[in-house]
Specification:
Layout: E1 4-9, E2 12-17, H1 20-29, H2 37-54, H3 62-74, H4 77-91
Antiparallel strand pairs: 1-2
Helix pairs in contact: 1-3
């Protein structure tokens, strides 16, 4: 079963799921022990912070968007920048 988290998108409460490998990598990035209760809370807070920071109360496909945010968090900075550069070049 995929890990599930409750978050708020604007005033709307929703449940999101993460791939287990992404969740574990994020837990490790956050400096927590995978499987611990504190790890689940840390991930939930991190996910909520991403939604709050981007402030899009009408956001759809919340789980998919948050998974992409997790990938950028765990990816090394060089790889993430290469991806951003590529996206900007293809959109121009």
């Amino acid at each position: 079963m995929k890990p599930r988290y409750h978050v708020y998108v604007g005033e709307r409460r929703t449940t999101v799921s993460l791939d287990e490998a992404l969740e574990t990598l994020l837990v490790l990035r956050l400096g927590k022990q995978p499987g611990a209760r504190a790890a689940h809370r840390a991930v939930q807070r991190w996910l909520q912070a991403q939604l709050d920071e981007h402030d899009d109360p009408g956001r759809l496909q919340v789980s998919q968007w948050l998974q992409s945010q997790v990938i950028f968090e765990i990816a090394d900075a060089t790889l993430a920048q290469q991806y951003t550069d590529w996206r900007l070049a293809t959109e121009a």
